[in-house]
Amino acid sequence: xxxYQSDFLxxxxxxxxxxxxxxxxxxxxxxxxxxxxxxxxxxxAMLRLSRAYAAALQASDLSFDMLFGPAYKGIPLAATVACAxxxxxxxxxxxxxxxxxxxxxxxxTLVGAEPRGRVVIVDDVLTAGTALREAIxxxxxxxxxxxxxxxxxxxxxxxxxxxxxxxxxxxxxxxxVVPLVTVADVMTYLGRQPEHAATLVAMRNYQARYGxx
Length: 213
Description:
Layout: H1 3-14, E1 18-24, E2 30-35, H2 43-59, E3 66-69, H3 74-87, E4 94-102, E5 108-112, E6 118-122, H4 130-141, E7 145-154, H5 165-173, E8 176-182, H6 183-190, H7 197-210
Parallel strand pairs: 3-4, 3-6, 6-7, 7-8
Antiparallel strand pairs: 1-2, 4-5
Helix pairs in contact: 1-2, 2-3
């Protein structure tokens, strides 16, 4: 496990982004963990998070020209990850979209730099993938090329179609999905901490039932 992944998971547990117990999901499945990146709500925590995202991008083999944040959670992520990349010596433009188009001022739904070249979409998690699909369509319509979606967590869970949400999005769009961590990484991290032994067993059982193989 890379250092930025360990740092991210420590941050997630510390701020209640990653919680353990019994959680009924929209699918009806009862999950032993719940993930909500919206729990990051302070400047210091956001700085740590954005640095983890930036490190994941730098660790990938991606070649890209700008960042894009889908409304709404992707907006602060794109902005702060751009700052973290600039801090590391890579100053890149970023843009985001509104949910509703403006009919005054600059108008339209896109804000920030003009979409161009190879774009990485920055978001929180991939569940149904609706926001990411909309972002891909917006960018292509604007003449840019979305090359990847950077997300915090890949649940590695099979959906109704027999594929994971990540595999389905990649198959449909041709856009690569890059997670900071996978559920397998989470279990590796928990395996180093004896106090999470029961949670680890529950997660392994859940993945054996619903996980990708």
